[in-house]
Amino acid sequence: MNVGAYFDRHAQTLVGSLGRIAEAPVAFLMTMTVIGMAIALPLCLYVFLQNARQAMTGWNDAFELSVYLSKSTTPERTDEIAAQVRARADVANVRVILAPQALAEFRRYSGFGDALDALQENPLPNTLVVTPTPAASTAAGTAALRTALRAVPDVDQVQLDTQWVQRLIAIVNLLRRVVWLAAGLLGLGVALIVGNTIRLDIQSRRAEIEVMKLVGASDRFARRPFLYAGLWYGSGGGVLALLLVVIAVAWVSGPVRRLAHLYGSGFSLTGIGFKAGAVVLLASALLGWIGAWIAATQHIRSINPS
Amino acid sequence: MIHFDQVYKRYPNGREALAGVSFRIARGDLTFLTGHSGAGKSSILKLIALIERPTRGRVTVAGRATTTIKPHAIPQFRREIGIVFQDNKLLLDRPVADNVALPLIIAGVPRKEIDKRVRAALDQVGLLGKERNRPAELSAGEQQRVGIARAVVAKPPLLIADEPTGNLDPDLAVEIMRLFRRFNDVGVTVVIATHDVHLVDRFDARRIVLGEGRVAAETPR
Predict the structure, then answer these.
(1) In the CATH hierarchy, which top-level class contains the domain A63-161?
(2) Which member of A170, A241, A287, B57 has the lowest number of beta carbons within 10 Å of its beta carbon?
(3) Where are the domains of chain B?
(4) Which regions of chain A does DSSP assign to beta strands (E)?
(5) pTM confidence score
(6) B105, B117, B148, B150, best to mutate vs chain A, most A CBs in 10 Å
């Protein structure tokens, strides 16, 4: 067999399998929709997480430690401590908030102005707001910094305001695993759906396969159109899944932008992206092919003319 | 071309279809396998085409003992044999031309060549011009001729037919038999299983008569 005839034959089978699908478009669309939804589910979760991570990168840099000094600390001593802390290698910036300034801020933002007037003296201490360097902005880094700051004389209390951000990051990292798990399970599901569809398809065309085998078709030859059908199912499902994700992103991006705006952030939702989209298409086509391969190899072998 | 040597065939249900069959068919022969139904005609054809394997004994086709042919080699082996069935086994959802082209597509013949050979085969069976018809649009005799065209399109050296005239009226049956004769005239070895003794009488050809799983008579020897 020459090479031209080989490719000719494959192209014919590829298009031929599409023709068969066109003969039963409803059944094909239904199978494709199921596959598409199975792929879209982990994909939506993936897009959500990607966006969450992106939104949180800003927060990660904004780790700050509030260092409250003891009440008796003088402004001069406060500046001295600030200079000492600023000299540390893991500290990027130190901002000094003296007690009167803190009280003024509190009065402005808290709405407890009248209550504060009733107090005879300023209850707030002098405070340093310490920003660690990006390299030290990790759970371990900030914990070490916190311990070191606590040991400084006249330091009353050190508070890490952004511990919840770290917890959130941990949750997001956990969810990433969940996405992979869901993708793995649903991918297996896609292969099984395609495999089962192909199995039924083979059963309904049993007579035809028998005839082909009688006139000298090998199992591989008889299998080929079913493999291409699997490829169509898989890639069709992939396209549908991408479409679903695009629609979902478009649908929620408006409210997300408004929400971000209310929080004073310019954050907006990002879609799946070209590269990830291509990977999804390729993976779904491959899954369809694999599902079809397993089913077709098994069932076509068992069909023999009698 | 074909040699059966003490061949036994017992089916899983316990029926013994062949009980020690021996015969030879030479290259270029036209041979009728006759006998009433259940005598073992179909079993012999199935053993030749490797649809079944003998329980005991030795079947040689074109110089090869079929027991030595492994399952993966069967497709290649079958491409050397044209098979015609009583129920013609056409693909009803494909046009005539596709049905006839099937063995060539399987063998990987280039497309241009396929069209040419399909037309030639249809011409030989007198169906030129029916390429685009569906089998259901044809008469029973025409359908059987499509089946024959499919069997001969790849020019196999051996043509076997199982009751090819079983569903046809006598005039059409004779016509089909003449068709086989013509292929035989150009050198194809032809084996036809049929229970229709009157039809066979009209042809001067070798006959192997089967009865109860054995060769009951052979003319001429």
Answers:
(1) alpha beta
(2) A170
(3) 1-73+191-221
(4) 65-69, 91-97, 127-132, 155-160
(5) 0.74
(6) B105
